[in-house]
């Protein structure tokens, strides 16, 4: 692991009852919000460390039980489905605009 990942990992508490916030992690590490989120992504996807990010504040912690991992999975699935619904709605909007007679009034 590179230094920022190790530094971030030492600041992420274990267990939901000790959760922290992204903001607290940025202050503790000196990383930007985006860098913290990217490092968390790497910790999970490359390091296989079960870092959970719930929408609650504070909501960042390392899962220590199967129930905490399941909670994180449900939350991520819910967010992913919401994003897919929005993407579909935007695609439908774009399709309706593409066929709108108001786009090309001279035709």
Number of helices: 4
Overall spatial form: elongated
The count of domains is: 1
The Cα radius of gyration reads 20 Å
Q: In whole angstroms, how far apart are the ends?
A: 60 Å
Proportion of helical residues:
55-70%
Q: Which architecture per CATH?
A: Orthogonal Bundle
Proportion of residues in β-strands: 5-15%
Stretches with pLDDT under 50, minimum 5 residues: none
Order of helices and strands: HHHEEH
Report the count of strand segments: 2
Class from helix and strand fractions: mainly alpha
Mean pLDDT: 90
Strand order of the largest sheet: 1-2
- CATH class category name: Mainly Alpha
Query: How many strands, which pairing sense, and closed or not: the largest β-sheet?
Result: 2 strands, antiparallel
Which terms summarize this structure?
107 residues; mainly alpha; Arc Repressor Mutant, subunit A; 4 helices; elongated
